[in-house]
Write a structure and sequence with these properties.
Number of domains: 1
Distance between the termini: 16 Å
Number of helices: 5
Strand content: 15-25%
Length: 147
């Protein structure tokens, strides 16, 4: 059993109110149980919502309190991102999931690459808040681009 970023399964939960269905993941869902999760929604954010990026580091730095998640308007949404990550971790424990398929580049789900916090589409090496928390707790996190 695996968790999966809900947007990859066609759920319209992204910041822009859209989804990012991935054919490989949809095919996998026909063979395996994939539990859809959206950390932003689980953290209390609406859909649609302003885009957000991590400023000052990556998800691990957010969890350590040395970086924050901000919307393009500069509104700090760090608390919502951490709350959503914690809810996803609860679900992983509840269902006994040990693997997560996540949406690359997301400030929540990004695995290995995220935007740099300047809203200029530049990428940096690092994980989103949820991916970092799940990895810290022993889960395997892979991105949709690794399938």
């Amino acid at each position: 059993m695996k968790l999966c970023s809900a947007c990859l399964l066609g759920v319209k939960c992204r910041y822009d109110g859209q989804s990012k269905p991935n054919e490989k993941i949809l095919e996998l869902a026909r063979r395996e149980t994939l539990i859809p999760v959206c950390p932003e929604q689980l953290g209390g954010q609406p859909t649609p919502r302003p885009d957000a990026e991590i400023r000052g580091g990556d998800g691990k730095a957010v969890l350590n309190g040395t970086a924050k998640v901000v919307e393009s308007s500069s509104r700090d949404v760090t608390a919502e991102f951490i709350a959503g990550a914690e809810e996803v971790l609860k679900l992983a424990k509840l269902f006994g999931a040990t693997e997560v398929i996540s949406k690359q580049k997301s400030p929540s789900c990004g695995c290995g690459q995220i935007y740099d916090g300047t809203f200029s589409k530049k990428m940096i090496t690092g994980d989103g808040v949820t991916a970092a928390l799940l990895k810290e707790n022993g889960l395997t996190v892979i991105s949709d681009e690794q399938l």
